[in-house]
Design brief:
The protein has 293 residues and is α/β, with parallel strands linked by helices. It has helices spanning 5-11, 58-69, 85-96, 111-125, 149-170, 187-190, 196-216, 242-247, 264-271; strands spanning 49-53, 73-78, 101-105, 130-133, 179-183, 222-228, 282-285.
Length: 293
């Protein structure tokens, strides 16, 4: 049986770590696949204005590229150092595919920063149609006793509070036909013994997605989520030890990790009119890791 291109990339992953979150994509080996050359845009997001948090790298970058291919203008928010080669590259990619790009370095865990971010995007683009809440952190601990109050707060402040604050700030600018897409995780469904606080934030995101979908249904604003499994993003070497990184994704039914580009079409689908009769739902992109309702 011939292996697909993603399996071949997976075989070449070397043991590696990075010493800061959210990690640097440019330092990964091999580089994640963020632009699937087989994916051709067809104007599904033509004229749309999108904001993606954690958009400089990983899944966020892949979504930004796919959105630009589909005709959207794309703003990315990121937390990396001020001289961020990842953010610069993502802006270059958005513009390469014809979209207007805007990047802002900002910490969305601060409530006032979320207001500032949305105002900046609306000023740049003249509106906002699609919000992708994708930014996240994770800090593995083998015991609940090892999770400090500071770690718990940092994880929730970025993964959930930031999502909540940003969605609230964006809502006055959204209108009928707008879409919110949240990044949940397979850990919200399968659990994770080493990521207790992280998986709890993703469970909160899933519940929030369902509840907000019901709350906004009358306004015809759809709210959905994507729950990725083990995906080759900077967060992986920035989180785990080298040997865990090497084996990441091996225990899925498909026996490999996924690539960011394999997630992007799900976000396009949920952001576009293709999913016009879907709200409160979650798409699982996880190599078969979770099979259930």
């Amino acid at each position: 049986m011939t292996k697909d291109k993603y399996e071949k990339i997976d075989e070449n992953v070397k043991p590696q770590t990075q010493d800061q979150q959210p990690g640097v994509e440019a330092e990964m080996s091999p580089l994640p696949i963020y632009d699937d050359e087989m994916y051709k845009g067809s104007g599904k997001l033509a004229g749309k204005k999108a904001l993606i948090t954690g958009g400089d790298s990983g899944i966020g970058r892949a979504v930004a590229v796919a959105f630009a291919k589909e005709g959207a203008d794309v703003a990315i928010a990121y937390l990396s150092p001020e001289e961020d080669v990842d953010a610069d590259k993502t802006v270059e990619l958005i513009e390469k595919y014809g979209g207007k790009a805007f990047a802002k370095r900002i910490d969305i865990s601060e409530e006032e920063n979320c207001e500032t971010l949305v105002e900046a995007v609306v000023e740049q683009f003249g509106g906002l149609d699609v919000l992708v809440n994708n930014a996240g952190k994770q800090f593995p601990q083998q015991s609940l006793l090892d999770i400090s109050g500071d770690q718990l707060r940092e994880t929730f402040e970025t993964n959930f509070f930031g999502l909540f604050y940003l969605t609230r700030a964006a809502l006055p600018h959204l209108k009928e036909g707008s879409s919110i897409v949240n990044t949940s995780s397979v850990t919200a469904y399968n659990g994770s013994p080493g990521l207790l606080d992280y998986s709890a934030t993703k469970g909160a995101i899933t519940a929030f997605t369902r509840s907000l979908a019901l709350n906004l249904a009358d306004q015809k604003i759809r709210v959905n989520a994507v729950a990725p499994g083990p995906i080759w993003t900077p967060l992986i070497p920035a989180t785990f030890d080298a040997q865990t990184v090497k084996k990441h994704g091996d225990n899925t039914p498909m026996k490999r990790r996924g690539e960011p580009a394999e997630n992007a079409p799900a976000y396009v689908f949920l952001a576009s009119n293709d999913s016009s009769y879907m709200t409160g739902q979650t798409i699982h992109v996880d190599g078969g890791d979770f099979v259930g309702s």
